[in-house]
Amino acid sequence: MGIIDRILGRETEARQVGGMWPIDSDVAGVNLNEKNATNIGALYAAVKLYADTVASMPVGVFIRDRGVRRPVSRPLWLDNPVPNNKNYTRFDLIHRTVSSLLIDGNAFLMILRGETGDIVEVRLLDPRKVTIVQLPDGTPIYRVKTKAGTVDLTDDDVIHITLFGMGEDLRGLSPVEHHKVTLGLAKATSEYAAKFFEQGASVSGLVTVPGELTADQAENLRASFGRRHEGLKNMHKVAVLTGGADFKTLSFKPSDLAIVEHMEAGTQAIARIYGVPLHLLQLPGGNSSYNSLEVISREWLTLGLGSLISRLEAGLQRLIIGDTTFIKFNVDSMLRPLTKERFDSYAVALNNGFLSLNEVRSLEDRAPIGPEGDAFRQPLNIGIVGQEPEA
């Protein structure tokens, strides 16, 4: 073992790093795992917001030629990731990849090549079925669990994108696993609220009868009364009691349990975990104005989406051939200003010779007007400092 191996603590034999976390985990009295975590409304909304936003962005492949970015032909896998399934589109691939990242913290894309070595298919693997084994020299092996057993894939066959990594652990940290206490509490609060309105989480009233009842008689009376008057469907039904029985309502308000406050606290915690502004999860802040919400939304597009998109671009870059060729998501499509703002900026660009008329028309998806539209304008009353204007 060399000095570098000793410093890094590398093993002499293959070792499993960052294996799959337990499928089930009980916390806060509820069962929580990566599959049912999306039952939490705020978490589902946050993940869907990211996935929908990124998947709806235009994606292009470009080449940088002498500092100028020019589009090139798109690879077939980008628009048709799975040739045998025409309904599996680029939107589905990107959407599922982002969802996998935000729930498991990892996205594993399996690459399938044709006889000529060209990429013909890109499939997203279930992260819960992938275990990473690291060889002594640091090479990762991706062990995929299938119905027929396990299959070992190399990094030539798999693109591994992580959301949050720590140290030498090759597997990314799962947000659901790392924040299972916070998420479990949010899930427990939601289930408690559902049970409260379904059958009542506390005693809402007392049925009193003269004399003594056996345990069976008391249970039969409670069950009979509950069947007729518990739940939303039986609200406000008239109760008829015989045999001297009497019903007394106990004074109780749902606000005493602060259910709403606990549910809002869970939404706020999930918003912090995923970096989503509260108003995008339909929970506006107390002192947020329209202008502040617009600024916050733009910050989320820049900061929250920016790093996520950079991770996707870095991972998908391996599927693009060429040293100067790259893949890029068009974030500008999400920052498209209002019509007046666009036209005002076009006027500034046209009058200062930054854009031609045909270039402006192309930005608005309009056809060019001819060669005269390629001319650049410049203000005639502005010249170069120290140089006399021409007569």
Task: Outline the fold blueprint.
Elements lengths: L2 H6 L6 E3 L7 E3 L2 E3 L8 H15 L3 E7 L2 E4 L4 H4 L10 H15 L1 E8 L5 E7 L4 E5 L5 E7 L2 E5 L4 E5 L12 H4 L1 H20 L5 E4 L6 H15 L16 E4 L9 H16 L15 H27 L8 E5 L9 H13 L5 H7 L28
Antiparallel strand pairs: 1-8, 2-3, 4-5, 4-14, 6-7, 6-11, 8-9, 9-10, 12-13
**How big a fraction of the residues is strand?**
15-25%
* Helix/strand structural class: alpha+beta
The percentage helix is 25-40%
DSSP summary, beta strand count: 14
The major sheet is characterized as: 4 strands, antiparallel
N/C terminus separation: 80 Å
How many helices? 11
Mean pLDDT: 80
The parts where pLDDT drops under 50 for at least 5 residues are: 1-10, 19-23
Structural domain tally: 3
| Series of secondary-structure elements, N-terminal to C-terminal | HEEEHEEHHEEEEEEHHEHEHHEHH
* Structural shape: extended
Within the largest sheet, what's the order of strands? 1-8-9-10
Using the CA coordinates, give the radius of gyration: 30 Å
What do you see in this structure?
The protein is 36% helix and 18% strand. A hairpin with a 2-residue loop joins strand 9 and strand 10 (149-153). The strands form five sheets. It has a four-stranded antiparallel sheet with strand order 1-8-9-10, with no helix packed on it. The radius of gyration is 30 Å and the shape is extended. The chain folds into three domains: 1-199 and 253-331, no CATH class; 203-251; 337-374, no CATH class. Helix 2 crosses helix 4 and helix 6 (180-199) packs antiparallel against helix 8. The chain has helices spanning 3-8, 41-55, 76-79, 90-104, 175-178, 180-199, 215-229, 259-274, 290-316, 339-351, 357-363; strands at 15-17, 25-27, 30-32, 59-65, 68-71, 106-113, 119-125, 130-134, 140-146, 149-153, 158-162, 205-208, 246-249, 325-329. It starts with a helix and ends in a 28-residue tail after the last helix. With 391 residues, the chain is α+β, with helices and mostly antiparallel strands.
